[in-house]
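Good morning C.,

I know you're traveling, so I'll keep this short. The sequence:
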Amino acid sequence: MSNQPRVFISDAMEGLSERAGRDLLSPLRARAECEIWSLARRPDREELEAALGAADGWLCMLTDPVDEALMAACPQLRVVSSFSVGIDHIDLAAATRRGILVGNTPGVLTETTADLAFALLLAAARRMGEAGAYLRAGAWAESQWEIDAFVGQDLHGATLGIVGLGPIGQAVARRAAGFGMEVLGWSRSGRAVPGVRAVAFDALLAESDFVSLHVALVAETRGLMDARALAAMKPGAVLVNTARGGIVDEEALVDALRSGQLGAVGLDVYAQEPLSADHPLLAFPNAVLMPHIGSASVRTRVRMADLAVENLVAGLEGRALPECANPAAREAAP
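The tokens, ready to paste straight into the viewer:
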């Protein structure tokens, strides 16, 4: 019987490894007995429990629910490394009580996610989704150039409100400066950022032509953009969310689009993912909708994979994780 630790890996990463030109999981294969999920669909709860029952480590995805009941069913589990920055899919308090170290991948996707946020701002402002669909449907070929077709909003000279001034929010602010935008900012910590005028949350909503969300999903931010907050925005303003879907009340968001209170939205995240095929947001041509691709560049996803693997290897070997979300778990470890 092997003395190597056992790990479960929720994604084989074959396509990403091919793009990287190397096996991204090779450091784990060399140090542990690896059970790798190879199906296209995600493992369900029963399959996760079966795979993790004797596992010492787990490289999980943000789609894997890591709750206390699952951890209780996996008594040998001592380190969970998530291929994500956000860890709202993990019961961090329960993991800490059980002495299970949790790793994540912050920092490496900051600029890539900021690029997407700004792309959504541009796409929503200039009605690129609507215009592209019009062209692809052949409607342009059957009409003529019209002076009021798909007129949108300018970014240059407009006011951008950034909700959350962590690394990604700051990266979006830098991009906005290049477009000549006035940038307002609000954060729970009251962080001061050069080039960003700090204002109260309600003032940001009232003064901004565009609002971009960059806060973590925690108890205080869940439903932050509710019906009241959406009503406080400028009529016709644009909302962009590349953070977490639970920050926005989606029912209120649909109402705000339907009433015209919001001019457009650009979304990469949703309350429930994947977005259902009958979700009411799909009916709005002024909703630019992406399938959670904020970190989806080859370089960034490879760096995330490397860090997630490094975190898991370090935890299995009893070393400090390069990026640990709950270092206090070491004190509770048996």
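Safe travels,
E.
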